[in-house]
Amino acid sequence: MTRAITAGLDGTRESLAALDWAAREAVRRGLPLRVLHAWHHAEKIAGAGRDTQREWAEEGVAEAVRQVAGRHPKLTVSVDVVEEDAVGTLGRAARDAEMLVLGSRGHGPVVGFLLGSVGRQVIAEATRPVVLVRAGDRPALEAAGREVVVGQHGDAEDSAAALRFAFETAAARGATVRAVRAWTLPPVFAYSPGSLRLLDEAGGLEPCEKQALADALRPWRERFPGVPVAEQVEMGSAGQVLLSLVGRAQLMVVGRRARRTAVGARIGSVAHGVLHHADCPVAVVPHD
Hints:
This is Universal stress protein. The chain is of the alpha/beta class. It has helices at 13-29, 50-71, 86-96, 113-116, 118-125, 160-173, 193-202, 205-223, 238-243, 269-277; strands spanning 5-8, 33-38, 77-82, 99-103, 130-133, 147-151, 177-183, 229-235, 249-256, 259-261, 264-266, 282-286. A ten-stranded mixed sheet has the order 3-2-1-4-5-12-9-6-7-8, with helices on both faces. A two-stranded antiparallel sheet has the order 10-11.
């Protein structure tokens, strides 16, 4: 089954930028685009009943779709305008999509707005990649020289889904993948005699981290031999290291293993920090 790239549209500048990004990515990948708008009847709008509000919603979506279709005449586009809860609608749409693309307000006076409402719940529950796009995103940011930056951690299996997404995206764009592994000095008591021996054989901590990154990348290098790869191992927190590379990134890719707590699902500190502070599009990819 061919999965569509689904863009959530709510009429904001951020969601219109997300629609444009999704359309360009659909063209590159040869996939259809699905545009989804979820709305609800607002009782406080005087003189505008449910039918009128539905017409407004449909007209706004139709105009946005006409513009994007005009820029990409060969793109297959479908549209769904539904009177339903946004979180549930987007969550269901994400299950069947190649990826779900949403607008993001980013940092500033409204920091956390998206992640604190619809976005956080959708990202935490999604079983497919979710891409967040800023209002200032434009095709020029995908120009040659900018890389697809992906965070790698743990062993090869831990980051397989994020690496796959990064390589697929880079292959479609003719871009370089920059794979980044951040590391910190573990507490002394965490060492066991066996781990110390392995570290000695590897020549120390940093060579051991470089080997772990190389091992994780090996199957994806073999699968995508035409994709240039830059490997970077750096000491520091993963979030800080990734954010230091935003200026060279056309897309930032981070993995996500959602944790459930008493106050709901959390997406992890690295993904949370990158989503709030990166000014390039960010893809959050759930672990397989």
